[in-house]
Every structure is written in structure tokens, then in C-alpha cells.
């Protein structure tokens, strides 16, 4: 029996583990894929307090070293479900392994929605970015493309237009689906060129992005020659497996309170996987700290 099982070894999950370990609890982290989570795919992080610049991989490695040195156990397992049995939880993996804990912290993050078109997987982080807030400044002074039609896309376009000489905003339909106020701001930006009714069909380039090829409604194709393309076509939380135990909002994010507690006593949610406004490293770490502490307190009070 472990005190706390953390599902997901991203920044939120590992920070939760860090705090729980420092509160004297035993912790098992179950990770399906990438130790470090999303940030491992970022070539350059410049907004983490006290670190001027670091690669996402190095940041993840440092955190991993920190939590394992404190005694966290880590297993590569994809969690399929959580079952409550009295006042403990059985966490069951894809391989049908069962792990028991007094408390569970879900920190499964999100995945940016992908197109799944040629070149996308190969060029992610090499010109294709899903976070203009994080990566936009790297393309200061360059022409860039942005694909998307919602609030995130509008905000990214406005941000990019403040330091890029030209921003092509590419949408599938003939309008935006974000706030009207944002659309109005976007329309005032002379260096934004909106191209409606096109769909991306291919990212060009070998080791770096060199362009994006689109199809018009009449099936003709054209390529925008840009070194950066920001994709903001939505994010996908990965919480379906847990809806027997936590409430999800209408987008699939876990509903939790200020202490990261969910509707089930003893189950907490931290990081990008939960309902919140800002999904970044610092807020993931903040949630992790809160959830790790709250889970530790829950155990102290109930066992
Ligand atoms: C390319 C890129 C660049 C970015 N750059 C920045 C930046 O510069 N600055 C910044 O502040 N933010 C940046 N972000 C955002 C930042 O990475 C995230 O907000 C943050 O890492 C979220 O951490 P998390 O732990 O909540 O989730 P994640 O990092 O998504 O971690 C969740 C982990 O849970 C695992 N998992 C999911 N489901 C299961 C399951 N069923 N069983 C087991 N494991 C599971 C996943 O494999 C993953 O490892 C960037 C994001 C990307 C994609």
C-alpha cells in the first residue's frame, strides 16, 4: 500500500510528489509515456522563475532527479481506471496491474489537438508550435502563420502581431468563433492577414519547417513559406477514464476546488487536466504543490 499514487509524471504530478514526500508520505508515480510530460517537447523555456533559459527536457530531468532522490517510485504504466474500495483506491493499469493507495492525485495534463497531417509529427518543436505564449518570441521579426479560429487563436495572433512583421491567420471557415471584442482588436492590426476557408494539408520541411501547404475550397493548393506555424485548434484533456470518480466539465476537464480536491474525498486533480484559466508550467507546479499538500493532510486526518 502506497500513501499516494500520482497519475502523470508531468510538472504537476512530479511537484505533487515532491510536496507529498516532504510531508513524509510514500509516493508512486505512474506515467504512461514521457517522464516530464508536455514540457519535454519544448526546446526552450524562458518563463520559469529563477531559470533564464532551459530546455524542457533538462527541466523535466532535474525535477525527476529531485523527486526520485527523495524516494518517489516511478513506474511506466498507463492508468485505465480508478476503483474505490472502502477508504482506499485501486489504480488499475492497461496491463491489468493493480496499485493500492490511500489517496490519488490525477495529473494527466492535456494534449494539444493535432491535425495528423504529413510533416506535423516530424516538425513539432522545429517550427510547429502549439503555444505562441511560450514559443512566439523565438520568431520575433519573422513572418509566421497561425491556424485556428477560436479565442486562443485570436489571442495568439494579436500577441504575435506585436513582434512579427506579418502574421497569416488561417481559418477553416469564413469567420472566427471567438469573442467579438478580440475579433475587433485583430481587425485593427495591419500586419495580420486573415485567410478564410482553407485547410492545412501538409507541413513542409526536412529538419526545420519551411512552409505550410493549404487547400482552398475549390481544391486548389498553395503554400505559405513561413518558418513558424502556430496551431491553436483546441486542446484535448485525457480524463474520460476517471469520470466514475471525478466530475468533468463540458470540455472534459476535471472540476476541483482551491485545494485541488475533486468530488471524491481523497482524490485530487493538479495541472493542465483540471478546469482553470492559465495552463502553464508555473500553474502546473502550483497545483502540484497544493494537491501534494492537501493529499498529505487528507491522509493525516483520515488514517
Ligand atoms: C511544445 C510546448 C511548449 C511549451 N512551452 C512552455 C513554456 O515555455 N512555458 C510554460 O510555462 N509552459 C509551456 N508549455 C505548457 C506546459 O508544458 C504545460 O502547461 C505543463 O507542462 C503542464 O503540466 P502537467 O503536469 O499539468 O501536464 P503534462 O505535462 O501534460 O503531464 C501529464 C502527464 O500525464 C501522463 N498521462 C496522461 N494520461 C495518463 C494515464 N492515463 N496514465 C499514466 N500517465 C498519463 C502524460 O503522458 C504526461 O506525461 C508548453 C507546452 C508545449 C506542448
In brief:
The protein is built from seven helices and 17 strands.
Report on this model:
- The protein has helices spanning 11-22, 56-69, 120-123, 132-135, 151-161, 180-187, 281-302; strands spanning 2-7, 27-31, 73-76, 79-85, 88-93, 98-106, 110-112, 128-129, 144-147, 167-170, 192-195, 198-204, 211-216, 221-224, 228-231, 235-237, 267-269.
- With 303 residues, it is of the alpha/beta class.
- The strands form four sheets. Strands 1, 2, 3, 4, 5, 6 and 17 form a seven-stranded mixed beta sheet that branches.
- A hairpin with a 6-residue loop joins β12 and β13.
- The two termini are 13 Å apart.
- The mean pLDDT is 95.
Features:
five-stranded parallel β-sheet, alpha/beta, 17 strands, 303 residues, binds flavin-adenine dinucleotide, FAD/NAD(P)-binding domain, seven-stranded mixed β-sheet, 2 domains
Overall CATH architecture of the largest domain: 3-Layer(bba) Sandwich
Uncertain segments = none
Instruction: Output the structural class.
Output: alpha/beta
Q: Can you summarize the main beta sheet?
A: 7 strands, mixed
CATH superfamily of the largest domain: FAD/NAD(P)-binding domain
Number of helices: 7
How many beta-strand segments? 17
CATH topology of the largest domain: FAD/NAD(P)-binding domain
CATH class of the largest domain: Alpha Beta
Order of helices and strands: EHEHEEEEEHEHEHEHEEEEEEEH
Q: Into how many domains do the coordinates divide?
A: 2
Mean pLDDT: 95
Instruction: Supply Rg.
Output: 21 Å
Q: Which ligands accompany this protein?
A: flavin-adenine dinucleotide
| Helix fraction bin | 10-25%
Strand-residue proportion: 25-35%
* Cα separation of the termini: 13 Å
